[in-house]
Amino acid sequence: MSIVLGPNSYGKAENRVVRIYRDSSRHEIRDINVSSALRGDFTAAHLSGDQARVLPTDTQKNTAYAYAKKVGLEQIEDYALALGRHFVDDIEPVEGARIDVDEYAWERIAVGGKLHDHSFVRKGQEIRNTVVTIDGLGDSQSAWVVSGLRDLVVLKSTGSEFAGFLVDDYTTLPETHDRVMATSLTVRWRYLTTDCDWATAYDEIRTVLVEKFASVHSLALQQTLFEMGKGVLQARGDVAEVKLSAPNIHHFAYDLERFGLANNQEVFHVDDRPYGLIQVTVQRDDVTDAGSAWEAVPALR
Amino acid sequence: MSIVLGPNSYGKAENRVVRIYRDSSRHEIRDINVSSALRGDFTAAHLSGDQARVLPTDTQKNTAYAYAKKVGLEQIEDYALALGRHFVDDIEPVEGARIDVDEYAWERIAVGGKLHDHSFVRKGQEIRNTVVTIDGLGDSQSAWVVSGLRDLVVLKSTGSEFAGFLVDDYTTLPETHDRVMATSLTVRWRYLTTDCDWATAYDEIRTVLVEKFASVHSLALQQTLFEMGKGVLQARGDVAEVKLSAPNIHHFAYDLERFGLANNQEVFHVDDRPYGLIQVTVQRDDVTDAGSAWEAVPALR
Amino acid sequence: MSIVLGPNSYGKAENRVVRIYRDSSRHEIRDINVSSALRGDFTAAHLSGDQARVLPTDTQKNTAYAYAKKVGLEQIEDYALALGRHFVDDIEPVEGARIDVDEYAWERIAVGGKLHDHSFVRKGQEIRNTVVTIDGLGDSQSAWVVSGLRDLVVLKSTGSEFAGFLVDDYTTLPETHDRVMATSLTVRWRYLTTDCDWATAYDEIRTVLVEKFASVHSLALQQTLFEMGKGVLQARGDVAEVKLSAPNIHHFAYDLERFGLANNQEVFHVDDRPYGLIQVTVQRDDVTDAGSAWEAVPALR
Amino acid sequence: MSIVLGPNSYGKAENRVVRIYRDSSRHEIRDINVSSALRGDFTAAHLSGDQARVLPTDTQKNTAYAYAKKVGLEQIEDYALALGRHFVDDIEPVEGARIDVDEYAWERIAVGGKLHDHSFVRKGQEIRNTVVTIDGLGDSQSAWVVSGLRDLVVLKSTGSEFAGFLVDDYTTLPETHDRVMATSLTVRWRYLTTDCDWATAYDEIRTVLVEKFASVHSLALQQTLFEMGKGVLQARGDVAEVKLSAPNIHHFAYDLERFGLANNQEVFHVDDRPYGLIQVTVQRDDVTDAGSAWEAVPALR
User: Fold this and answer.
1) CATH number of the CATH domain containing B130
2) Residues A217 and A186 reside in one and the same domain
3) Do A161 and A119 belong to one domain?
């Protein structure tokens, strides 16, 4: 019989951990959704149901909560690195770990113009994310940090064209030199380091992304995305590559001439589906290989 | 046969209209989801399929987009009033209309510290809403405006108690004098007017809601919600009543003592379901009856 | 100050209870999502935060699980009646209760053509629901059962017309005598009884609904829905009224002539939004008033 | 400057195509959600916004609908192969294509025990899927078919254990020899062929999956999944490998002893999050390499 076990992993997904820092009367909040996945030789569990080498997913859950206290939850990258290294270094059968963390941002409520000590409103907008991969043991251990964001919805009401494209028998789209361009960005970038001021890096990268989106006169969403990724690499020497995924949220000018009304790119119908989906990688050509960094990263949507 | 047609309505739901104001190089954006529902004597359509008195839902859709240009889309309340009155006043068989509008907020992207003319990022946070009801014809016509918001997620990390409650055989909950209180607010308020500076009113009410949430020391979510509603009525003489619906998003302190770690209200598990659900009305006792104002308003969730 | 507490309720929403009957080796499964909401004089809780009359929502949760064992979970209507009566009869401050139960159906897995004793696959299709309202104490207590279903998606590929409708300046829709008609049904019906073979009633009503949808030649969705409701009332003398809510899921024939292909109602684009939304009540004109039966029932979507 | 364009693709996602076969009075329905993504040398579009080599996503949409008529939509695998080959073979700059198709199943409505000619109810349960990858031109072209299903929710109320697992300082889980095991299956399998009776293959594989789930006495979800995958490979010589992803939907026995009630695995709370997540590949060790077959397949969730 030639049927064998192939690649496999297991873990606890979507632990909803909230950490309050209350050392002073001015509290801080961290709000995350963390998933762990472990790899190693778990053949016996699959072939005979022998769990002797399997650390329960329930234990992984306990550890995720405990580490929010033990190492703290200042920056999700540091927390994920600590948690991933623990599983690989301290649990004998584990040879690799992926820690995936979403972070939801909060801001202080202002009362009479003064920011409150312990009351917060969820910030909305994008979700910050990191996927940390730990691979191997001892001196041959590798660690990768791929951080990113998603659900950052941006729109420009002019400054976007789409023309000069390839035409075949199924092409009916007219060219345009002025359209609404809108998308909900998912971006991930691979760091060349595991030790960095993650918060500053995140803020800088987010700023570059939205500024480039705003300021590039767009001949195509592809071009805009490439410029955004390029801007990130120019701003951060410690980022090796950027992957961007952007649904083109189509805004169709509604035909109002039928009702005696002009519509000079003023009234649009926003369609849910289908949507264009553009996926771009921008990378340095002179850096070390990504190794397993992207292997366990969920595909960009 | 005693089987008869009872209350009925029909309309076009969830028209996704975007309106760009581009009179100058500094564009403005309005982004809404609008639904219309019409009432009247549509017995023939139901009993024999005779559509002679039925304005198609497709026509209602066209009208929603046309009115975004014809009357504009400055404030959702004015747009909804105009649209609702059109259906009742101009379409003979229509005797009543409900226009339900969600609005998604956008803010300008800052480029180099300067707000961009035509590039925007979706603001996130709460969705603003209005439900306008037009009822009857000519001099006996009534119009009600019920506005509100939803998905405003707030949390306080202390300043919340729950104790002294009723105990029965199924009660196992311990009392607490310090807990995390979090909720995703849905609030609706009925205006006593149909002509108002809607944007200012909205901003004032939202400010009162979050300030009261932050500053009231809470003995129960019920008490907090009542104070929030009361604050709105105190701030705005043109609001007759406020309905608040608040899921109590439970934050459970995780038991870390099992791992030799203290957890002084620092690490929490956030549970999805079940959740407490508190629904409160705060109203003036000296105003005119609500009439049909709430009749067609979807139940608070 | 004329600001007062208005209508209010509180409860525990979305308790996900599964009940396994394992008295023999052939297990049975019931899978529900149950929410409770209590009414009464809870003024003190709102005005001063005094919880002395408030049975915690946590207790309501415990009770929902306990009653799945104590009274069992054979039919959701009986379970909801027992749970609602318990809260009103046994907890002094409670004067009214609403119990809302969704039920997810499962079917046995067939192994080698034989239905398995304890392995199940979720059936999919519609969600069965009941909303039981208990109002008042002792001899003046009323109890209503409003049951229903939702997410029953049906389609007919011909036998549907839409023509002869009202035309105004915004009407552009062409008439059609052959179209695809599709909807995702939400239906609720009010029983005149609190003691009935609920399972048989449900099966009969579901059968009438889909059979009428299939067999009525439709001149309008309104007509189809009226016939469906009428069929239910004809089949079940213990049902007083039926409310149906049906989004018209639009199927647009795709224009293939541009590519030299005929499209005789064969290839369609299904649009998500906007959608027509038709809401109809069919009722007997000779039955007792609905009282509070519908008051706390969430609006049909 | 060492910043370069990396891997990229673009396409039209989520075209909601419905195809009605109406050659006789007995109609057939196919209901799909199809996404296309194209690869090739699109450097100019990214670097300078030059679209001369870019077939618009709007054209891809038109083609998806046209092919539902031109080649038909009998089996999603054949449709996807035809569509993918068209893009690669007929559009000069395109060197690779991925076609991802979800199919929603419908069944005929029975009226008076007789299956109706043109009225259907959506079947619910799992969504069938295929991802076809076409890579390269002419004689060196490869084509892979990876089919699967998702959202198949199964449960066994006994016959599942979890014991003998690894214990560390964070382990608190008790062993169990009788638990509820439930999951929502996502399964994908790679065919060794591009020409097959796809419907029969799908039915056989689905049957093996649910039968194995039901009949294997489970010592761990890993073991159950391995047996399911092995069963598929034993049944179908034309399947090279199977990937299974299974969230462990935790059913916790509710503590009813506090209320004087026994709970012998009868009443459970179903928790939403976190959940165990087990991902397993079962493969033959003697078949040709998967090549690009999985490259563009979205990660199992």
Assistant:
1) 3.10.270.10
2) yes
3) no
Q: Which of B167, B250, B257, B258 to mutate to test the interface with D (most CBs of D within 10 A)?
A: B258
Domain identity same for A216 and A242: yes
Residue D39's alpha-carbon distances to A64, A219, A244, B57, D85, in angstroms, are 40, 19, 16, 41, 13
Residue B259 has its nearest CB partner, among D169, D259, D272, at D169
Q: Are D210 and D266 part of one and the same domain?
A: yes
Inform me whether the pLDDT recorded for D1 exceeds 60. Answer: no
Helix (H) or strand (E) holding A15: strand A15-21
Q: Are C203 and C111 part of one and the same domain?
A: no
- Domain containing B65 equals 7-140
Q: Is the confidence at residue B71, as pLDDT, over 60?
A: yes
Q: Which of B84, B117, B140 is the last residue of a domain?
A: B140
Give B-chain residues touching D174 at CB under 8 angstroms. none
- pLDDT of A288 reads 80
Q: Establish whether B212 is a catalytic residue.
A: no
D19–C270 C-beta distance less than 8 A: no
Over 50: is that where the pLDDT of A247 sits? yes
A272 to chain C: which residues are within 8 Å by CB?
272-273
User: Is some CB atom of chain C closer than 8 A to the CB atom of D211?
Assistant: yes
Cα separations (Å) of A71 from A191, B267, D1?
22, 12, 40
Distance between the two ends of chain A, CA-based, in angstroms?
Answer: 38
**Residue D254 clears pLDDT 50, i.e. is over it:** yes
Burial (Cβ within 10 Å: 0-12, 13-18, ≥19) of residue C28: middle
What confidence tens digit (pLDDT) does each residue in A9-64 have?
A: 999 999 999 999 999 999 999 999 999 999 999 999 999 999 999 999 999 999 99
Catalytic residue among D61, D156, D243, D250: D250
In a shared domain, residues C300 and C153: yes
Whether D1 is in a domain gets the answer no
Q: In chain C, pLDDT over 90 holds for what percent of residues? A: 94
Contact C172 A273 (CB under 8 A): no
C12 has catalytic annotation:
yes
Say how many domains are in chain C: 2
Instruction: Tell me, yes or no, whether D69 and D165 share the same domain.
Output: no
The pLDDT of residue D288 is: 80
pLDDT in tens, B177-212: 999 999 999 999 999 999 999 999 999 999 999 999
Tokens read off for A220: 């195509």
Is A187 part of any domain? yes
| pTM: predicted TM-score of the whole model, two decimal places | 0.97
Single out the residue in C98, C113, C140 at which a domain terminates: C140
Helical (H) or strand (E) element with C77: helix C76-90
| Catalytic site includes residue B57 | yes
Q: Residue C134 domain-assigned?
A: yes
Q: Which residues of A touch B157 (CB under 8 A)?
A: 20, 22, 27, 29, 118-120
CB contact A267 to B (< 8 Å): yes
Question: DSSP label at A238?
Answer: T
Average model confidence (pLDDT) for chain A? 96
- Output D58-62 pairs: Cβ under 8 A, ≥24 positions apart: D58/A171, D58/A172, D58/A173, D58/A276, D58/D12, D59/A167, D59/A168, D59/A170, D59/A171, D59/A172, D59/A173, D60/D11, D60/D12, D60/D36, D60/D87, D61/A274, D61/D12, D61/D15, D62/A170, D62/A171, D62/A172, D62/C258, D62/C259
C21 and C134 co-located in one domain:
yes
CB–CB contact C52 B219 (8 Å) = no
Residues of C in Cβ contact (< 8 Å) with A273? 272
* pLDDT score at C1: 58
In a domain, C2, yes or no: no
State chain D's mean pLDDT as an integer: 96
pLDDT on residue D301: 43
Which partners does chain C have (≥3 C-beta pairs < 8 Å)? A, B, D
Instruction: Report percent pLDDT > 70 for chain D.
Output: 98
